[in-house]
Amino acid sequence: MALERPDLSGRTAFITGTTRGIGKRIALALADAGCNVVSTGKTVDDTDSDLDGTIHKTAAECEQRGVETHAIRLNLRDPTQIEAAVEEAIDVFDEIDIVINNASAIQQATIEEMPANRFDLMTEVNVRGTYLTSRAFVPHLRDIGGGHVLTNSPPIAIDRAPGGAAYMWSKLGMTFVTLSLAGEVADDGIAANTFWPVTAIDTRATRYFGMGTEDEWRSPEVVSDTVLELLKRDPNEFTGNAVYDEDVLREAGVSDFSKYNLTDGDPSPSSARMADPDYERPE
């Protein structure tokens, strides 16, 4: 079944971490739906890097789809940069009604092996970055009558993650912040929800950190399609939810996920089990 793309014409999204991977795919999907895009991240020059992609390249690809774009260099560890980026985005577009907290740092290691600076990186980018970005947009979203805050983080179903405590703590923190925000702004027409892939996604991180093989990955489109579906929902009626991509897409009528798979056969739910070791797909 082909999903019906929402019409996001005239709307504008501020997306963190759009250089490559999931963030870039979300930006392009929103642009295809007519949404203006604020492309943010740290990479502005990839000429001396083995990693292709910059915030400006993503913005240019979005612009080719007929929407307005603006790229802002943003280090989520710097609160002054976050405040300035939000002000700049609002100044350029007047109204930003979609905020997507996508950017994350990742490293899997035991507590003994994880150095303090890497713990700090994940805490500051993932939890604190989500907190400060969401917080900075609340007055604006309230002033314009509402909107969507979406965060790329999992449902909270565990109280420990041996071998990955620092990363999972930071991702669960993103969820905790977002769902807490939902309860604080529910009367303002601002929806705050999180989304998380059931399977691992083919990104630079999964390849770099050796997180499985192509048999275990799906393309980033499964996440961007999920985001589009969530943006169809009334923010006054659907807020405070932590959802899996497969559940959202099944509700939209998808029963065959093969178009998202990199190889034959559905990948195992390895991403869901990072946050819930007992996770099983519904019958």
What would you note in describing this structure?
The chain is of the alpha/beta class and 283 residues long. It has one domain: 3-Layer(aba) Sandwich (Rossmann fold). It contains nine helices and nine strands. The strands form two sheets. Strands 3-2-1-4-5-6-9 form a seven-stranded parallel sheet, with helices on both faces. β1, α1 and β2 form a beta-alpha-beta unit. It starts with 11 loop residues before the first strand and ends in an 8-residue tail after the last helix.
Question: Terminal Cα separation, in Å?
Answer: 20 Å
Q: Give the averaged pLDDT, no decimals.
A: 95
CATH topology category name: Rossmann fold
The helix count comes to: 9
What's the total number of strands? 9
Helical residues, percent? 25-40%
Oligomer designation: single chain
Q: Mind telling me which CATH architecture this is? A: 3-Layer(aba) Sandwich
For the largest sheet, list the strands in their spatial order: 3-2-1-4-5-6-9
Structural class: alpha/beta
List keywords for this structure.
283 residues, alpha/beta, Rossmann fold, 9 helices, globular
In brief, what are we looking at here?
The chain has 283 residues and is of the alpha/beta class.
Helix and strand arrangement:
Elements: E1 12-16, H1 21-32, E2 36-41, H2 55-63, E3 69-73, H3 79-93, E4 98-101, H4 116-143, E5 147-152, H5 165-184, E6 190-196, E7 200-201, H6 204-208, E8 217-218, H7 221-231, E9 242-244, H8 245-251, H9 270-275
Parallel strand pairs: 1-2, 1-4, 2-3, 4-5, 5-6, 6-9, 7-8
